[in-house]
Specification:
With about 260 residues, the chain is of the alpha/beta class. Helix content is about 50%, strand content about 15%. Helix 1 (about 35-45) packs parallel to helix 3 (about 80-100) and helix 6 crosses helix 7. It is globular. About 35% of the residues are buried.
Length: about 260
């Protein structure tokens, strides 16, 4: 276990997989300000831990992945535009590490995934959902505004038309509808969810880390239309071809065995 300043987040590393759990089940894992702070700390630790090959986000209690921001804090921390800015600055480290993490990030969604929780899940590279999961962004029922970055991430994933529907209607949708519009990759039964995620994460953890990192960087560059980052992606690709892992992959292929990649 990783020691944190808040009990509302749990973190541990198990066989190459970093697990980060939203641990606020009595409030359907609503994300408080202290949880945003802890999120950045954990992801930074996972980023710099070479034993971590892939990261999984999940919610405690089985009823929610995350049900958005903790509204009980709004009167104290988010009652007006000035407070919203201060709140955003504190939460920014967590958001920054969600986008900065160069290792695969999986969201394991069970139950409610709404509002800020859905926004967090959009940062994942792959999303698994249980059949009973529920998705939505109820901002239009609260009167608050969504920042450009979050809206853009949603529109890139599901398309502008579906993004308009989600944001304008503020309706909730079941997992199969979410999968149909590309909001999640896989929908599995409640009792198979964790085993499927573990198996998938283990597959990613066995693959060549430098190759996965270069692929993630290339896809992010394409998604964000950040052509200036193309040279950085090229450098990551060169690093793959110059790596010990590439030599190991070739040897393992010729010897008909499973490669043992070291990430160098």
């Amino acid at each position: 276990m990783i020691t944190l300043k808040t009990e509302k987040l749990l973190a541990n590393v198990d066989d190459g997989i970093g697990w980060l759990t939203f641990n606020n089940p009595e409030r359907r894992n609503a994300i408080s300000l202290e949880m945003w702070q802890g999120l950045g700390e954990v992801l930074e630790a996972f980023q710099h831990d070479d034993s971590v090959r892939v990261v999984v986000l999940k919610g405690a209690g089985g009823k929610a992945f995350a049900s958005g921001a903790d509204i009980s804090e709004f009167d104290q921390h988010r009652a007006n535009a000035e407070q919203r800015q201060q709140y955003g600055e504190i939460a920014e480290r967590g958001r920054a590490w969600l986008s900065r993490l160069d290792k695969p990030l999986i969201a394991m969604i069970q139950g409610f995934c709404i509002g800020g929780g859905l926004a967090v899940s959009l940062s994942a590279d792959v999303r698994f959902a249980s059949t009973g999961s529920t998705f939505g962004i109820p901002a239009a029922k609260l009167g608050l505004g969504y920042e450009y970055a979050g809206v853009a991430a949603l529109a890139r994933l599901v398309g502008p038309s579906n993004a308009r529907d989600i944001l304008f209607s503020a309706r909730f949708m079941p997992a199969e509808e979410a999968r149909g519009m590309g909001l999640v990759n896989f929908v599995v039964s409640e009792d198979e969810l964790e085993s499927r995620v573990r198996s998938y994460a283990a597959t990613l953890a066995r693959n060549a880390p430098l190759t996965v990192r270069a692929a993630k960087a290339a896809i992010n560059t394409f998604e964000r239309h950040a052509r200036t980052d193309a040279s950085a992606v090229a450098a990551l690709v060169d690093a793959c071809f110059n790596s010990e892992d590439y030599a190991e992959g070739r040897r393992a292929f010729s010897e008909k065995r499973t490669p043992q990649f070291k990430g160098r």
